[in-house]
Write a structure and sequence with these properties.
- The structure holds two protein chains of two kinds.
- Chain A is α/β, with parallel strands linked by helices.
- Chain A contains ten helices and ten strands.
- In chain A, helix 7 links the parallel strand 7 and strand 8.
- The model of chain A has no long low-confidence stretch (mean pLDDT 91).
- Chain B is built from ten helices and 14 strands.
- The longest helix of chain B has 16 residues.
- Chain B is elongated and about 75 Å long.
- Classes of the chains: A alpha/beta, B alpha/beta.
- Chains A and B meet through helix 7, helix 8 and helix 10 of A and helix 5, helix 6, strand 12 and helix 10 of B.
Amino acid sequence: MERFQDIDKADSTVIWVKNMTKKFGKFVANDNLTFSVEKGEIFGFLGANGAGKTTAIRILCGLLSPTSGEAYVAGYDVYKQSEKIKQSIGYMSQKFSLYDDLNMMENIRFFGGIYGLDKKTIEQRTNELIEKFGMQDMQKKLIKDIPLGWKQKIAFSIAVLHKPKVVFLDEPTGGVDPITRRQFWDLINETAEMGITVFVTTHYMDEAEYCNRVSIMSEGKIIELGKPKDLKEKHQVNSIDELFFKVARNVNY
Amino acid sequence: MMVRLNNLCKTYGTTKAIEDISFEVNENEIFGLIGPDGAGKTTIMQIVATLLVPDSGIAEVCGMEVNANFKALRKHIGYMPGKFSLYPDLSIEENIEFFAALFGTTVQENYHLVSDIYSQIEPFKDRPAGKLSGGMKQKLALSCALIHKPKLLILDEPTTGVDAVSRKEFWGMLKNLQKKGISILVSTPYMDEAALCDRVALMQSGKILQIDTPQAVVNSFNEVLYAVTSDKVYKMKEYLKHSNYCKNVHLFGQEVHVTLNTGVIDNVVTELKNTGFSNVEIKPINPTVEDCFMKLMVQ
């Protein structure tokens, strides 16, 4: 409770995690994680498959309780205030982003409604989006008929439609063409500049370089955490790609 | 010739999935279909795997036309779809024995083909396939696709969603299979994997942009490519996008890759320094397949 009050005062810390552990039976998915993420930061959450990233993200999204330790998101306790957390975050992944059988406008109305935006705000932000992407002729198309790259850009914009404190992006650029992938990162940068924290996982190691800070998980633990530049200097490597091969293990994959 | 495709077309409703696709896969070659989702990779693979009939064009595998000979050809083809498609309620061992039995063979008979891969999951052979981790599922799926000793292995995006370390390991397995005489048709959205193929087709929106060896693709870039670094890479990328000197500007990790529109590279250096960027460094570099792909996309 003490820490919660601290966060209330220090509005700049959006994610605060201390000694967080999650066990499934004997299996330790998250082993004593400690880290924090600041307002407006782009935080890259890296690790091999099976390292425990998804478990941590599910906890931070208010979908799962840790076994022990503390975690606060947007100032709310993951144990007791998961509903408040869900209202304060945005989420998108490669697998789940938008409803295929709804068109773009319907998706926006649906998600806007879920996040409690009023009709006027939804309408206003819809118009902003259409103008930004120049997609006047796309708004009535079903999402399943829109190319993946576009879909992911729209999905991201909808995930931040309610101006959350933090948006979680789980492999948002998987399968996306290289030009759209870079446009997607332009969107991430714009969003962070607006003060929304971006928490992102990716298997593209060039994208890790675009983050303000990255963590690398292995076997449930955070084994590296810092600015890409500092981590590269520490390990005497030229890229995060090299660093990843040096430190990441895929034992549980 | 392992695979020969001539002017293949396939349309779903009003969407042209593939248009006029022609290429050949040589015996014992690793041939890669490289491109994003929606490029048409899966459609091509399903036609080659005898699972889908093209609207027009001819597909041959092992010298046999695919439609007329699909039953005979299935003995020679191993297919691993992009989505995990084994029986989740059957154990590892039951799955592989089932697939061996379907093709009238036994696990023992062809064990040598899969031993490197299957031995990694064999300690868990009683575990249901649905309860396996992503990597174990993949190894099981690959083992099941190989157990009837196919001549051609078709792998649809085997490394999508897979981390960089595990991807490298997977490609190691493919190289070993190649040494055992198997021809491989593989698709991937990861441009860096193109370099691991003998030849690649770069694909976008149902069309082939280029077919060649990865080295020849890179050699065909035909422009000097520069890598620019400074203390503020992202801001510098934004700046260079609007510079008259620069043609193509793309962020590549900690570098910005730039081709020139006009002038000499020194103009860019001066411009950046005058604008207040510090630690500006520029060097000519060899393009990657990703550089080539983006160039082809905008052409």
